[in-house]
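In this section we walk through a basic example: taking a raw amino acid sequence and producing a predicted 3D structure, encoded as discrete structure tokens. The instruction is simple. Fold the sequence below.
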Amino acid sequence: MNPAPLPSYTSVLVANRGEIARRVIRTARELGLGTVAVYSDADRDAAHVRDADAAVRLGPAPAGASYLDVDRILAAARASGAQAVHPGYGFLSERADVARAVVDAGLVWIGPPADAIAAMGDKVAAKAEARAAGVPVLPEAVLDGDDPTGWREAAEPVGYPLLVKAAAGGGGRGMRLVTRPEDLPEAVAAARREAQAAFGDGTVFAERFVRSGRHVEIQVVADRHGAVVHLGERDCSVQRRHQKIVEEAPSPAVTPDLRRRLGSAAVELARRIGYEGVGTVELLLEGTGDDARFWFLEMNTRLQVEHPVTEAVWRVDLVRLQLAVAAGEPLGFDQDDLAAQGHAVEARIYAEDPTRDWLPSTGALLRWRPGPTPARWDSGVEEGDEVSPHYDPMLAKAIAHAGTREEAAARLARALDELEVHGVRTNRDLLTAVLREPSFLAGEATTAFLDDATHLRASGPDGATTARHAVAATLAGVLDRRGEDALSGFAPPGWRNVAGDAPHTTWHDPNGATEPTTVRYRLEARGGFRAVVEPSGVELHGRVAGTHRTGPTRHLELEVHDGDDAVGVATRLRCTCTTDPATGATWVSSHGATTAWQEAPRFTEHGAAGAGGGPLAPVPGRVVRVATQVGDHVEAGQTLVVLEAMKVEHRIAAAEPGTVVAVLVAEGDTVEAHQLLVRLEEGAP
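The resulting token sequence is shown next.
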């Protein structure tokens, strides 16, 4: 069921970056096709560039000047001699004009015909096609023009709550939930900005919001000879900011009879628009089993991020099918030839901090090491890469397949536990908590899952593990200093020629999210140590059973006894401690836990002070809106500046009431992390 492509083309240019570019390159090379990558200045040394046979520079870091520039993509194809273009997902993948331009340039477009993309490219028009195909749809209204009163009048028949959605594109971009009419203008403005930046089209519409629904989607595949089949459904209900983070196939809410109904609706729509290639019909499902209701949301005329779970369950290579269909090959199978096997679950690993409202994290990826548990890792990065603020924060996807849903979820959680990632914050702890949450395991997750299970956002190492990591970071630092000291071999560890307090190291959270932690320690003979962690009061003693270094990472194997009782079996703790040469932060990993530590200076620098007086940029980004001016009195929580980083807008608000005395940025400015944005004078005017 995976036919090889005809020799109508021998090389493919992948007009994308990151994980999906690497995914397409991998299958293309397996088929003997030449591969060409494209890159922006920010991605010059990226993993997808290293994977390809050749690479062409597009332009500066902003997507609008590189990955979204059609003329530069076509010029890259001409320069490299590529004969076909694969758009991946996002960026140009659902632009009918791009598909036409590629074909007009004499190249093969690895995707559906331009007319099919156009039919589904505008979500309002797509819903009209779905109605005509007999697929139920939710009420909607176009929000055009610039009159907020007109928007409210148009949205009134839709009802509240509603979603403001981008008419072009997908992936959760350009989408805002609105519960009150007075909030609609700000939501429309924000959704338009985000949609314009992500897709080059700021058109938005309102759609009725169903809070308790499930996001279920049907994978369809069609060739140019009239064959159309479906590969069952994926359940993508676990979402944050309307973007999926955990997906699975099949859905725990779908029965065989419901699957036939959903599949038939998707196939009928694909036939109606003359679809070719791989595509996904997204549906909102309410209820479970044979009595469930469903509505059409949109059709993604491209490969989906979550396609690996379908590949695992249905035993197909969807990229290979794309390449074959584009070469004119028939599918070679029909619906009766297809059968699902087992269950697959996927988790998206993002460089973001769920405890800080999903704030993205950037910097050098100091360590990236998946563990031994059998799982598929589709990664856009490798160890040593730089995580840029210019693009989506997804680092990789992990996929586990097993005979049952419970086994697949457990295997994926175990694989995530084993991942060592240093240098950027990730959502790994949240993902493992989701996979072990009883309501998820019971198949009860809807699109409101993470809004209801707010406790999962705070998932992370417990106090005992955090204390052990603090001790491990301290010991790693001591061992590194002793290794660099030529005189360290002349005295036993911890020796002093005068009496005094135990040596100590004070650590800060690099994000400033927790209070300082101080580790007071004594080193003893034969690798022994005793430590007290403050302010938690945790006492640890044991010994360093083994240690070695690989580059900036020190590996420690500790035998740890909690408290004063040294009798019995010690806990074996294996840690990796990586020190960032740029910032001095130390990242510590043990099984299922990662923490970050910034050593406080032993002596306060004279005159050192925080910037104070106003909010700082939490991450590097671009200013898309300045919502205040000099002289304004602002309240706590009031938006002052809106930043765009990693394709998502972030509100920067006042922490306390005050008066604006200086606005230090303007719309369009690029700012660095920790840069002062607005200077405030606290208190009432």
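Looking at the output, two observations stand out. The chain has 16 helices and 38 strands. The radius of gyration is 27 Å. In the next section we compare this with other chains.
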